[in-house]
Structure formats: C-alpha cells, structure tokens
Write a structure and sequence with these properties.
This protein is mainly alpha-helical. The protein is built from eleven helices and two strands. It has a two-stranded antiparallel ribbon with strand order 1-2. Helix 2 (about 30-75) packs across helix 3 and helix 7 (about 170-185) runs parallel beside helix 10 (about 230-250). It is globular, with a radius of gyration of 23 Å.
C-alpha cells in the first residue's frame, strides 16, 4: 500500500543521502548540515515553476487592486452587478483568481514531506535510516556528525540557551528577519493606494489582515524556530532565502523599494 512515507518522505531521505554521501566523499565538513541546505535547494528548484506561477498570479492580483476598489465603490449596493463587473475585469486582464491557489496546493505535500524528513533525520540512528534507503551504496556505515558549525542540529535554541548563552538567539532572530524581508517584498502598495491611505478612515478587512500578517507571520516563525531543532531552522532559512531571490527576479524589491528610497534620500541629504 502506497502511503505518504513511501510517496514523499522516503524519496526525500534518499535524495538527502545522495547529497550527504557526495559531500562526505569530497571531505566537506558539517556534511549533514550542508546536505539539508542542498536538499532544500533541490526541492525549491523542483517547485520553481509552480512558485513562479503563484508569484506572478499574486503580482497580477495586486496590480488589479485599484480597479477592483473602483468597482466595489461604484457597485457597493448591487451585489450582482459587482460580481459581473469583477468577473469582466478578470477576463479583460487575463487573470484567474484561483491561479495562485493550485500551485500552493501542489506544493504543500512536498513542503510538509521535507519538514517531516528533517524532523526525523536529525533524530534517527543510522540503522533506522538505512532501512528506507534504495541502494546499499547510500547506507551509513558510521554514525554521522550532527553538528553544524558547533550547533547540534537535533537540538533547539531553547535547549541550548544554557550551554551557549544569548548567542543562540541569533537563530530565531535571523529566521524571523528573513521571513519578514520576504513578506515585505510581497506586500506592495501602488501610488493610488498610498495617496488614498491618508484619506481612508478605516481599512477593509483584507488589507488590514495582509498588513498585520506581514508582521505577525515572521514573529510566529521566529518563535517556532526557538522551539524547533536547529536542523529545521536551517531548512526554513534556506527555503526563505531562495524564495527572496525568486521573488526579486519576478517583481524586484517590491515593498522593500520604500526602504531603498528612504536610505537613498538620507544619503543625498548628507
């Protein structure tokens, strides 16, 4: 019977072991940590087309926000006409509102599988890992080093705080920071929205939620990374940094453009 482990987790473990054995063969230190980074990059490359589709759909929807706002204001008392005009606008601009959802649905099993792999891989003994490997050449004959630049991949910052001290807080702080940068890049206000924001007395729910989630989600991720193993944080940070690069290729700095302009203005004034 084919289950989630057979379909997703075991293949990912085998890919991880291919990377690990290759890095071990060429004597790369901290091979397990770099294998986690390598596996994450491989998965991101596999998901690249789907992520591209999702990000492009999201960008199109953001570009249409001013038009949708006008339609809502014009037909706020006529639900039927509002729906018709909204669908007409989507058709006119070649936008499918569900286009950004399908890639997410397809990605979720793979991302969850990768999370499960890394959760297991730093805790399982070599003998247990060898049971799910497809080839004998991939099997571990010696215990592997679970340290990454001195940090044990199987332990969390909360477990290491007494041994290492405040330095270990850098892990959740960097995790939250990278997530915030990616969220900020995705949240872009066009010129019309910037002009209207001063006049608006109350934001609509969707805008308010999007604005708040830009801060809340990175805080949540940072908090979770304090309790999760270093190996999982290593995976998540690699995943996020790759996402930042992909986001930049599609829509540039996005919301970070405001920061760049402010920094540039300060330099000019000086």
């Amino acid at each position: 019977m084919v289950n989630f482990d057979t379909l997703i987790i075991n293949p990912l473990i085998n890919i991880l072991m291919i990377v690990y054995q290759l890095l071990s063969f060429i004597k790369i230190p901290y091979a397990l940590g770099f294998s986690i980074i390598g596996l994450t990059i491989i998965v991101r490359l596999i998901l690249y087309p789907l992520m591209n589709s999702q990000l492009k759909a999201s960008k199109k929807m953001q570009e249409m926000n001013p038009h949708l706002k006008k339609i809502k204001d014009k037909h706020k008392n006529d639900a039927k006409m509002l729906q018709q005009e909204t669908m007409r606008l989507y058709k006119e601009h070649g936008v499918n509102p569900a286009a950004g959802c399908l890639p997410v649905i397809v990605q979720l099993p793979i991302i969850w599988g990768l999370y499960s792999v890394l959760q297991k891989i730093v805790l399982l003994k070599p003998v247990d890992i060898n049971k799910v490997l497809y080839f004998d050449s991939l099997k571990l004959t010696n215990p592997w080093d679970t340290l990454f630049f001195g940090l044990p991949l199987a332990q969390s910052p909360s477990q290491l705080i007494e041994k290492i001290g405040p330095f270990v807080f850098l892990v959740p702080l960097l995790t939250g920071l990278f997530q915030y940068i990616q969220s900020k890049m995705m949240f872009v206000k066009n010129k019309e929205e910037k002009e209207n924001v001063k006049e608006k007395k109350q934001e609509d729910f969707a805008t308010a939620f999007q604005s708040q989630s830009m801060y809340l989600f990175p805080l949540m991720i940072g908090f979770f990374s304090y309790s999760f193993s270093i190996g999982l944080s290593l995976y998540w940070n690699t995943f996020t940094i790759f996402g930042i690069i992909q986001q930049y290729k599609i829509s540039g700095l996005g919301g970070l453009e405001e920061w760049k302009n402010k920094i540039w203005q300060k330099k000019v004034i000086k």
